[in-house]
Design brief:
nine-stranded mixed beta sheet, 3 domains, mainly beta, five-stranded mixed beta sheet, 4 helices
Length: 305
């Protein structure tokens, strides 16, 4: 081999190396603390971590001030080899050799220096999907049967967590103000962070919204005359009606006499005789089933001075 072959390239390489050495040797050596991600490698199949794993560790690095000043937490990663993990509590040492850092950066310390982890065998089983609903249907209506399709879903995770699992839940389906059946596709999830769905998916939640099963009559409710024009007087015959309420037994029991109001709207009407429908309002605990009679005679006259 010829020692002087490519002599030009060798001279340039030597000059660059000398320049780099001079630049680095002229820098002040500094230390800096960083919080960096912990990467779990070679995770054995069939095992699960029981409990929240470490995701960040603290490291101290040393190097030239210029080099260290350009380092970000993403440039340095701590790595832990779990290929020897077995079920039970295991202790792993974390040393500077477990940390990957850029050229010119020396890792001098890692904290914590050891990490305890508990491993369990993986398990899978079916649990029921329990739909979540929120809000109240329209007055006088109640929530009937609530179902999910599919009815069950597979969950997976550590054996002990899977054994505790009783249900998967859905996103909340609103029934606020509903008067008819609701069907909505929503996501399914788990409340235990140690568990996950074997196959993430959604479910169709169906909610039956039905008229209340009970009725109650609020008798003798005065007919109020609304929106009567100025300088006019009015009288309703009959002056009172019966309002039949519908709802649940509990809701109807909460209705007080002042919670029901019957009225006739006189907007835009002048002097004369009219047959007008009666409307009624009640609290949110009940709906209006019917009004007896459903219309009244109203006579509108000019008001006397």
């Amino acid at each position: 081999m010829w020692p002087f072959r490519h002599v030009g390239l060798k001279v340039v390489s030597l000059a660059l190396a000398v320049a780099l050495w001079m630049a680095v040797s002229g820098e002040e050596v500094v230390e800096r603390g960083l919080r960096v991600p912990l990467e779990l490698q070679q995770f054995p199949p069939g095992l699960e971590l029981s409990g929240e794993p470490f995701t960040l560790v603290d490291v101290r690095v040393r190097g030239g001030s210029g080099t260290i000043g350009q380092v970000t937490p993403g440039d340095i990663i701590a790595m832990l080899d779990l290929r020897a993990a077995r079920p039970g509590r295991r202790l792993f040492q974390l040393t500077p050799e477990n940390v990957r850092a850029p050229f010119g950066v020396e890792v001098v310390q890692v904290a914590p220096s050891s990490i305890a982890m508990v491993f369990e065998k993986s398990a899978t089983r079916l649990v029921p999907i329990v739909p979540e609903i929120e809000g109240n249907p329209a007055p006088g209506f109640i929530v009937g049967t609530v179902t999910a399709d599919p009815k069950t879903i597979e969950v997976t995770g550590p054996e002990s967590a899977v054994a505790r699992a009783t249900e998967a839940v859905t996103e909340a389906v609103s029934v606020a103000g509903a008067r008819a059946r609701i069907a909505e596709s929503v996501r399914v999830g788990l409340l235990d962070p140690l568990l996950r769905l074997k196959t993430p998916r959604s479910a169709t939640v169906r909610v039956e919204v039905l008229p209340g099963p009970r009725e109650r009559t609020a008798g003798g409710q005065p007919v109020h005359l609304r929106n009567l024009a100025p300088a006019l007087a009015a009288q309703a015959l009959p002056p009172a009606v019966d309002v039949v309420l519908r709802g649940s037994r509990e809701g109807l029991n909460r209705i007080e006499p002042g919670d029901v109001m019957a009225y006739v709207d006189l907007s835009g009407l002048g002097v004369g005789d009219y047959s007008l429908p009666v409307a009624a309002e009640a609290s949110n605990d009940a709906g209006i089933a019917r009004i007896l009679p459903s219309a009244v005679q109203v006579r509108i006259t000019r008001a006397k001075d």
